[in-house]
Specification:
single chain; 19 helices; six-stranded parallel β-sheet; disordered C terminus; alpha/beta
Amino acid sequence: MDEPHSVYRDNRMTWYTGPQSEDRNWPSLAQSLRDKYRNEEAVKAVDDASTKVVSLLEHPKLAEFSTRGLVVGFVQSGKTTNFTAVMAKAADRGYKLFIVLSGVHNALRKQTQVRLKNDLIAANPELWHEVTTPERDFGERGNAAAYLAAKDQHLLLVVKKNAAVLRKLNAWLGTAHEYLENCPTLIIDDEADQSTVATKKINPLLYKVLSKFPKVGYVGYTATPFANLLIDPSVEQDFYPRDFIVNLPKPVGHQGTEVLFGREPLDWEDAADVPGGYDMIRRVPDDEVDDLKPKNKKEAPTFTPALTGSLEAAVRWFWLATAARRVRGTGNPHSSMLIHTSVDSGVHFAFVPVLKALRSRTLEGLGRDTRKLLDELRLQWTEETAKVRAADLDEVPVSFDDLLPHLRTVVRETTLVVDNYRSSDRLDYDSGPVTTIAVGGNTLSRGLTLEGLVSSLFVRGASAYDTLLQMGRWFGYRDGYADLPRIWMTDELQSWFRHLATVEAEMRIDIDRYMTTNENPMTFAVRLRSHPKLLITAKAKMRDAVKAEAAYGGHLIESRYFDVRPEGRPWLDRNAEAAKSLIEDCLLANGSGPAPGENRVLFRDVPHERVTRYLAEYSFHPKSTEADSRRLLGYIEKRLRAGALKRWNVAVIGSNRTEAKKYKVGSDFEIGMVRRGRIDFETGVAAGEPADIKTLTSARDTTLDLSLPNGPEELKRSDIEKLREAQVPDVGLLLLYPIDPISPTTAVGRVALDAPADVVMGTALLFPHPAGDDDKVEAEYFSANLVEQDDVDALEIDDEEEEE
C-alpha cells in the first residue's frame, strides 16, 4: 500500500489521512468551492468532512472488500457537495468506477449529473468519462469491458433507482468480464432512505449491482436516515450501515428544523439553552384547510381552491420579500415560493387561475396606487419585519418605501409553474434569474432545490418522519435573506416539525457517540424517539425495529378504524362489552352524574384502575398505530409513578337526533347513538380494508368536563388546552361513543358504516400535559434490533414510486 497506517478508530485501520500533493481532482474541486463560497472556512469544513468519509472506506489496492456506510446530513445542507468531494478524493487514490444512485425522479437525476459535471469533471475532463448525460439516464451502452479497459480514466454513471434502469445496468456490468476484478468501485446512494430499504424490486436489484464487484464501497447519503437505521443488520442482502455512520456537522448559515421551529429540551439540557426558533411560522387556521386541499380522493377531480386569507398573505409576502431582496442586491439571484397542499396533480393545476387572478388584481391595484392595497402591504411588511429583525441575522434592513419601487415589477415578472409528473413545465434555474411560484407535490418533495425560497404555504399531511421532513424544501442556506423566509402551515404541522427537530438532535447525539466510544454500528443502535401520531418511517421499513412505550402528553387519541366485515362481529361485541362494564363501574362510584344536556353522561373522579381495566379489555384496530392499548397502558403506568393520572373523567357521548337509535347507560337512562359514516374508498371493506371514519371526536366534546366562562361557544383547540390546564391539569378524559352500526349518511365522500353489531363502540382519550416531575416521563424510542433473528418473514409491500 502507498500510505502508512497512521490513524486508528474503533479498531478499524484508516489508510486515508487527507489530500496529497499529487492529487488532481480534489484541488480542482477545492478551488471551485472557493470561487463559489468565497469562504475558506466553508471549504475547510467540506475538506474535513469528506476526509472522514474516505478514511472509512477501504484502500482500493486491497484484493477484495465490501464496505457499507451511511452519511447523515441536514435537509438542503450540501450533501451533494460532500459526496462530490468524497468522489474526488477517492478518484485521486485509485477508485475507478463511480455510480451515483440519484433518487427516483428525472429532475433530481438531471440536477445531480449537471452538478457533478460542473464541479468535478469540467476541471479535468481528460480524467473522466460520463457514461450517462444530463439528458439521458443509463440505457444500452454496448460492452462494459470497452469502457473499463481504458487506463487512467474514471467512469461516472448517475442513475435513478428505477427497476428498468437497474436491470439494464446489471446486464451491462455482466459484459465487463474480468475487468471488474480490478475495478475499485464507489457507489453513492443519494436519498438512501428512498426505495433502497424494504422494496421488492429496487432492493434486490441494488444488491445484485453490489454483488458484481469484488472491490466496492457503498455509501448512503440522506438527511432522513430513519429507515436505514432500523434495517435488520443480520440480513446480508440489505443495506444496514454495518461499517460506519458519519454525522455531517451543521454548516454555518444553514437554516434547519431547530432554527425555524425550535425544539424541546433533552433530559440533560436547560430549557433556556435550547433553540426556540425564529418567529417565521404563520398559522393556517383549521377552517381554511378544506379550501386549500380536497378532503379525499373522490373530491379531488372537482376541487377548486379558494383564495384564503393565509394563501393571499403568503403570496403577498413572497412579492414583498422578493422586492426587498432586489433592494439588497445580494445572495441568490432567484426567488421562489412553494405551494404544497396535495399529492393530486389536478389540484396543482386548479391553483393556477386563482393565482393568476390575484396577480392581475394586485398589478392593477399597484398601477393605480390603490390606497387600501398599499396600506395592507405596508402593514404586513411592518409587522413581519418587527417579528424577525434583519439586523439580528446580519442582514440589511429594508423599509417599505425602499422596496415599493420594485414591487410592481416583481409581481409582473412572477411566473406560475406547476411541477408534477403531468406538467410539461419544470423549474428551470439555469436560464437566468427566476421569480416564480411553484405548485406541486412529489416532484418538489425530495432532493430538488427550490432556489431562493422565501415563502411557503404547506398543508400537505404526512404519516412518517422522513416523508414530512423531506417535504420541507424551505430548509437550507439563505445568504442575503436570512430574515425573510416565512412558512404558512397548521398548528399541528408546526408541532410535528418541532418534534422532528427534537428527534434529529437526539439521533445526531447517538451517532456522535461512535466517535468517542469503542462502539460501532453493529454493537450500538441509534435510538429514534417516536410520536403517537406519526410513524418514524413506513411500516414495512420498521418491521425489525425494537420498540418501547410512547409519550402521549397533550394528545387526543381516538378510534378511527373499525372491522365491519362479518368476521369482525366478535371484536366489535367484545369492545361493546368492555364499555358496558366500565359504565357499570362508574355508576357504582361516587361523584358520577349526568352532564349538561340529555344525551351526554359525565362521571367525574373515576379511579385510574377502572380506566386501565377498560383499556386492557378494549381493542383498537391494528391500523390505528397511535392507539395501541399496550403502549397506552405502559404510558399511563409511568405517569402514575410520577403522581399523575390517578383520577379520570369519563363521558358517554350521544346524539340529540330524535330518530337516533338508543343506547342504554345503566338500567334507567338511555341516549341516542352517534352516527359516523365511513370514507368511501375505492378498495373498500370488500377488499379487507377496515372502515375509516376519519374523525371520532369534536372539539366541543373535549370541553364536557370544563367550566366554560362564556358558555358552550366554539373554542379553538389552543383555548381548550389552556382551560384544561387551568381546571383539570392532572386529570385524564376518556370519551365513549356508542356509534349507530348502520350510520346512514348523505355526506359527500361518505357511505354508511354497515357494521355487523348492535353497537360500535368508539373510544377517545385526552391526556393532560405533563408538568413538574411528571414531565420526566420517558418518550418512546425505536432502534435496530442488533440481535440476530432466526425467523424472518418475507416482505410483502409495494415498491415506492418509480419513474421511467
